[in-house]
Amino acid sequence: MYQISSKILYNKELSPGYYKIGLDCPDIASKAAPGQFIMIRVSNQLDPFLRRPFSIHMIHNSNAPHDEVDRNSRIDILYKVVGKGTEILSTAKEGGEIDIVGPMGNGFQIHEDMTTAIFIAGGVGVAPLLGLAEEILLKKKMTRSLVLFLGGKTRTDILCVKDFERLGAQIHISTEDGSLGRQGIVTDQFVDYLESQDNAPGSFSHCFACGPEAMLKEVAKITQKKEMPCQVSLETMMACGLGACLGCVVRSKSQTGSKEPGNDIISHKDESMIHHKKVCKDGPVFNSTEIIWE
Fold first, then answer.
1. How far is 95 from 117, CA to CA, in rounded Å?
2. Quick one: which H or E segment has residue 214?
3. How far apart are the C-alpha atoms of 28 and 40, rounded to whole Å?
4. Cα dist from 148 to 232, 263, 281, whole Å
5. Which candidate, 13, 29, 78, places its Cα nearest to that of 211?
6. Residue 60: which residues within 8 A CB-CB, separation 6 or more?
């Protein structure tokens, strides 16, 4: 993990309220993995005081397909303006510098026997999934197909379509107002897709999801019913990002995780053991069956 002052390569608006910022940070780019995050100090002023966590959207390295210049030296962050911190970040100028810490947390695991990778994203939840899709294609021991489900309230919430098209992904889009793709919620389209598939012998699908908690809860329910492995990246508020403040704790059925002192804070309920995990240290990526969603 590094704390550095990174040069801003670009900071551009992709859709109303959504931005992508490119950061020149060779040390972080060379160590980062899909699903990890960085903490950004958005201002040199005391307000806002705390850093903000952001999923790593893309890692530009020498092995990535279709890469551009500055290989192995930069990362992209995809973010939505939702408050004071992200509003300040959206005004950051190309050529300026910004203080970042990373890479942090645990990322996605890629199974070698996976034949189909299914991605489900709600709005800006697509951020960590594009870099993951790139990484999956780099592992060429077995032919893999990519299927993406993108959901949002309206068409302006649908991001990265061209990026996934470039990777050859099959794309399904849902918007609640029907302004793009199918009208409705993304999990309904996911269910219809699963019902239409013939699970041929030897095929193995794995689901990766990021987005609002309600969406992730439903994805976990669907995939568990189908006995499909599923990893979820949790979007949780963080204060320190280091596991010290306990501000990002979630309830878990599993005791495994970071072995640092105080990792497993155990409570009892009806003789069952509930283990509290730190999203910043044990996640942000978890197996969906590990999380207690109620």
1. 37
2. helix 213-225
3. 13
4. 14, 34, 27
5. 78
6. 29, 67, 68, 70, 71, 72, 73, 74, 75, 76
Going by C-alpha positions, the residue among 176, 131, 134 that lies closest to residue 156 is 176
Residue 272 pLDDT: 57
Lowest-confidence segment of 98-102, 164-168, 184-188, 234-238 by average pLDDT: 234-238
Query: pLDDT tier at 68 (50, 70, 90 boundaries)?
Result: very low
Q: What gap in Å lies between CA 110 and CA 77, rounded to an integer?
A: 22
Task: Give yes or no for a contact between 122 and 186, defined as CB atoms under 8 angstroms apart.
Answer: yes
- Of these ranges, 42-51, 136-145, 152-161, the one predicted with the greatest mean pLDDT is 152-161
Q: Starting at the edge strand that comes first in sequence, how are the strands of the sheet with 18-24 ordered?
A: 52-55, 37-41, 97-104, 2-15, 18-24, 74-80, 58-60
* Torsion on CA atoms 63, 137, 226, 150, rounded to nearest 10: 90
**Helix axis angle, 213-225 relative to 186-196, nearest 10°?**
20
Kindly report, residue by residue over 280-294, the tens digit of the pLDDT.
999 999 999 999 998
Which tokens sit at 85?
A: 């911190």
